[in-house]
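Below is a filled-in request sheet from our internal design queue. Each sheet records the structural input a requester submitted and the sequence that came back. We keep these sheets so that new team members can see what a complete request looks like end to end.

REQUESTER: design group, bay 2
PRIORITY: normal
MODE: inverse folding
CHAIN LENGTH: 194
BACKBONE (tokenized):
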């Protein structure tokens, strides 16, 4: 995302929460921008999942950045899906492609859409404050060979249903993208960050 929070707010007719900022490329466990409750806000990407070590000590939580649609009714995700849905504005998302140890970055965009939205859910966490997770569904035909899952892309006509409708109506939005996607296969290594 290269747009400022003010530009995002204008696009989505939203207010800007104090302290929000756009972060360019966003990685799990790092801040990203979402539109939640009518405001553009910065939250950490990934619900914290605590784990224990072999001797029972509490380990640093790891971010769970994706919520599969077939798991939204599980205790980990359900409360957020029922009452705290958000939109994640993107210009593109990346997937890893290629053999293990040699994966490269493939960027996925929606043709004709400078900025599009994907479905998200959010909550408060003791570890990182407000956190969000991206909702994933089965991949559409344009993703064949790249990944078997993809983010739920929310068309502009479905944004109100995703954020404000009943859970049953919102769940109907959770489907593979019916439109076209553009893939930009790069030689950029997947591992490591710019």
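RETURNED SEQUENCE:
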């Amino acid at each position: 995302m290269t747009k400022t929070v003010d530009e995002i707010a204008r696009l989505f007719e939203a207010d800007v929460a104090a302290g929000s900022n756009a972060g360019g490329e966003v990685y799990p466990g790092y801040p990203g921008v979402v539109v939640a409750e009518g405001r553009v806000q910065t939250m950490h990407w990934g619900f914290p999942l605590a784990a224990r070590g072999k001797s029972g000590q509490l380990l640093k939580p790891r971010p769970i950045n994706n919520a599969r649609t077939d798991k939204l009714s599980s205790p980990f995700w359900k409360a957020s899906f029922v009452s705290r849905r958000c939109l994640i504005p993107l210009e593109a998302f990346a997937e890893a492609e290629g053999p293990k140890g040699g994966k490269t970055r493939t960027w996925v965009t929606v043709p004709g859409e400078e900025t599009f939205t994907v479905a998200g859910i959010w909550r408060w966490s003791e570890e990182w404050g407000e956190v969000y997770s991206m909702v994933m569904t089965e991949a559409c035909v344009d993703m064949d060979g790249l990944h078997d899952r993809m983010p739920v892309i929310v068309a502009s006509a479905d944004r109100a249903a995703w954020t404000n409708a009943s859970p049953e109506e919102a769940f109907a939005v959770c489907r593979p993208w019916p439109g076209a996607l553009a893939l930009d296969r790069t030689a950029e290594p997947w591992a490591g960050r710019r």
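SHEET NOTES:
- Residues 5-11 form the longest helix (7 residues).
- The chain has a mean pLDDT of 91.
FILED BY: M.R.
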